[in-house]
């Protein structure tokens, strides 16, 4: 059997500071006989020197294109637009199986080169549960930003930070009034993160998950000052909020953070806004009287690159150590082949 050679690539998106493999885990891979090459990257939160001193080989940014054919290229987000033919196996979040913009083009590039996408979103256990995900930190940041906005302390543009620095701004000051908070999807990864951030902010949120929304009490929902939506919707359910709820003069809700960000999808449980917000303008006012502010940022974990990378890498490591053609990676490959077939593209 060929020895595994992982190639950690530089991320094409300049604001992406996270990495799927942190230096200490790269060392664990090396200790197990895996070859690890790490591309230089000006923005990665861990300097390349840390990987080098762990024993990794170092290569220039973008040099994966000419890496040996058996190399498995590892990243997080989108590939650069070139080359047109992708010949390697790539591990990353492809966002290519739900007809997203650019999905067909990406699958065609794989088909043209004979390579394969092993999509991290589809790396699941026997029961279909995700094995490595950023949800906890998405929820943590979603709740943290909502609290800061609610207290009038959120400053834009947002920039990557550390948990310690964030927590220092979150802890309640003597002048801070108390508030009531609600987390929906509270039992999931993001929901758990939101609960921890609320606790740091001195709040004890109401926690709802599937049983509590089956027969939704919108009056009770609107009676909270701050709400974080962290559900993973898999089938359509009645919306949690409608326009008429926002217009309700008795509404207590002032700050809404939608971690789920399913805007535009038929599964969207918050069809009260039409586009996400971002780091430059994190907050949009949805109503003036009484005020209601929305935060709906779709790359929240990137704001805590070190913590989110460290947790993600720890979850991914056992599966990289066990890299093979069956089990979770086999399922990833099957999913890729199915997507390619559905698109009607065949391997060259
Ligand atoms: N904004 C971001 O940056 C960001 C980052 C990561 C994940 N996300 C999104 O956050 C969402 C949650 O991700 P996760 O990893 O926490 O998922 P998860 O599967 O760990 O948890 C989802 C939770 O939602 C609950 N749920 C599902 N439908 C519900 C309903 N109708 N009512 C109440 N609860 C319901 C589930 O029971 C579960 O507890 C996903 O949509 C994911 O795509 C966003």
UniProtKB/TrEMBL annotation:
Which reaction(s) does its UniProt entry say it catalyses?
L-saccharopine + NAD(+) + H2O = L-lysine + 2-oxoglutarate + NADH + H(+)
Subunit and interaction comment: Monomer.
Q: What is its EC number?
A: 1.5.1.7
Q: Describe the location of the Alanine dehydrogenase/pyridine nucleotide transhydrogenase N-terminal domain by residue ranges.
A: 7-141
Q: Which InterPro entries match?
A: AASS, AlaDH/PNT_N, AlaDH/PNT_NAD(H)-bd, Lys1, NAD(P)-bd_dom_sf
Q: Which UniProt keywords apply?
A: Amino-acid biosynthesis, Disulfide bond, NAD, Oxidoreductase
Keyword match Amino-acid biosynthesis: yes
Where does the Alanine dehydrogenase/pyridine nucleotide transhydrogenase NAD(H)-binding domain lie? 146-296
Per the similarity annotation, which family is this? Belongs to the AlaDH/PNT family.
Query: In which pathway is this protein known to take part?
Result: Amino-acid biosynthesis; L-lysine biosynthesis via AAA pathway; L-lysine from L-alpha-aminoadipate (fungal route): step 3/3
PANTHER family attached here? SACCHAROPINE DEHYDROGENASE (PTHR11133), SACCHAROPINE DEHYDROGENASE [NAD(+), L-LYSINE-FORMING] (PTHR11133:SF23)
Which SUPFAM superfamilies does the UniProt entry name for this protein?
Formate/glycerate dehydrogenase catalytic domain-like, NAD(P)-binding Rossmann-fold domains
The keyword Disulfide bond is assigned to this record: yes
Q: Which organism is it from?
A: Streptomyces bullii
- Recorded protein name is Saccharopine dehydrogenase [NAD(+), L-lysine-forming]
Signal sequence interval, chain numbering: none
Tree of life domain: Bacteria
């Amino acid at each position: 059997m060929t020895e595994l050679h992982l190639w950690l690539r530089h991320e094409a998106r300049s604001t992406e500071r996270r990495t799927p493999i942190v230096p200490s885990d790269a060392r664990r891979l090396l200790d197990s006989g895996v070859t690890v090459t790490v591309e230089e990257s000006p923005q990665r939160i861990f300097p390349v020197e840390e990987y080098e001193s762990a024993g990794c080989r170092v290569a220039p940014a973008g040099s994966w294109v000419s890496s040996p054919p058996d190399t498995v290229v590892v990243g997080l987000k989108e590939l650069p637009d070139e080359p047109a033919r992708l010949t390697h196996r790539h591990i990353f979040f492809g966002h290519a199986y739900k007809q997203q913009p650019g999905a067909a083009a990406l699958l065609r590039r794989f088909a043209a080169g004979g390579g394969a996408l092993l999509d991290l979103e589809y790396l699941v256990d026997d029961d279909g549960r995700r094995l490595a995900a950023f949800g906890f930190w998405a929820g943590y940041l979603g709740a943290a930003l909502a609290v800061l906005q609610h207290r009038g302390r959120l400053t834009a543009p947002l920039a990557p930070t550390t948990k310690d620095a964030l927590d220092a701004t979150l802890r309640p000051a003597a002048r801070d009034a108390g508030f009531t908070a609600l987390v929906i999807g509270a039992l999931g990864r993001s929901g758990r993160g939101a609960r921890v951030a609320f606790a740091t902010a001195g709040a004890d949120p109401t926690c709802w998950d599937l049983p509590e929304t089956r027969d939704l009490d919108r009056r009770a929902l609107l009676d909270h000052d701050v709400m974080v939506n962290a559900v993973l919707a898999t089938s359509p359910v009645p919306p949690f909020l409608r326009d008429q709820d926002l217009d309700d003069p008795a509404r207590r809700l002032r700050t809404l953070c939608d971690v789920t960000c399913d805007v535009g999808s038929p599964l969207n449980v918050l069809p009260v806004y039409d586009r996400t917000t971002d780091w430059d303008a994190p907050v949009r006012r949805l109503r003036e009287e009484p005020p209601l502010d929305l935060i709906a940022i779709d790359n929240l974990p990137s704001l805590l690159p070190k913590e989110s990378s460290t947790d993600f890498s720890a979850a991914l490591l056992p599966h990289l150590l066990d890299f093979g053609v069956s089990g979770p990676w086999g399922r990833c490959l099957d999913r890729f082949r199915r997507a390619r077939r559905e698109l009607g593209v065949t391997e060259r």
